Amino acid sequence: MVEAGIRNGLDPEISKKLVTSTMIGAGITIEKSRIDLDG
């Protein structure tokens, strides 16, 4: 992920933040769907 960011000319720190926020977003979505399933 970070390597791809460097290849695209992005600042590695920005790439890391994007990856982190994406992972956090995915985690929240998974938690929400779990809660929905449990009722």
How does this structure look, described?
The chain is mainly α and 39 residues long. It is built from 2 helices and no strands. It has helices at 2-7, 12-38. The termini are far apart. The model has no long low-confidence stretch (mean pLDDT 78).
Please render the helix and strand layout as text.
Blueprint: H1 2-7, H2 12-38
Task: Provide a brief overview of the structure.
With 39 residues, the protein is mainly alpha-helical. The protein is built from 2 helices and no strands.
Could you tell me how far the N terminus lies from the C terminus, measured between alpha carbons in angstroms? 35 Å
**What level of helicity do the residues show?**
over 70%
> If helices are DSSP runs of H or I spanning 4 or more residues, what is the number of helices?
2
Order of helices and strands: HH
Global morphology: rod-shaped
Record field, number of beta strands: 0
Radius of gyration: 14 Å
Chain-averaged pLDDT: 78
What's the main sheet like? none
The low-confidence parts are none
Q: Roughly what fraction of the amino acids lie in strands?
A: under 5%
Structural class: mainly alpha
Defining traits:
39 residues, mainly alpha, 2 helices, 0% strand, rod-shaped
